[in-house]
Specification:
By secondary structure, the chain is α+β, with helices and mostly antiparallel strands. Helices cover 38% and strands 18% of the residues. It has a 3-stranded antiparallel sheet with strand order 1-4-3. Strand 3 and strand 4 form a beta hairpin. It starts with 5 loop residues before the first strand and ends with a helix.
């Protein structure tokens, strides 16, 4: 059974500064434990009930992001037809009309 991490007051800030949600790589939040006021529970505000209480290190998430950006720029360079140049000089209304809205 998965349970939310419970940490003492001094440790919870260190934990959430070094860890992120393993599902969405989002920031974690703390909430005072209603049963024991000396502890905090950690949760992911983005995933809410879908979160399975697993975390990864912040440095791992940063490395994944860097790898994804590298792959994006490589694909953009090798497949220019899939990444047309950004259209400039048009208003948001003109762009929406082009897209059929």
């Amino acid at each position: 059974m998965n349970t939310a991490p419970r940490l003492q007051e001094g440790l919870v800030d260190i934990f959430i500064s070094r860890r992120v949600c393993a599902r969405c790589y989002g920031e974690l939040a703390k909430e005072r434990d209603p049963e024991d006021r000396n502890f905090y529970t950690v949760h992911c505000p983005t995933c809410n009930g879908d979160w399975n209480y697993t975390t990864v290190s912040r440095s791992y998430a940063v490395k994944l992001g860097q790898k994804a950006m590298m792959e994006y720029y490589e694909a953009k360079a090798n497949l220019p037809d899939l990444f047309p140049p950004v259209r400039t000089g048009k208003t948001p209304e003109e762009l929406a009309k082009e897209l059929g809205f």
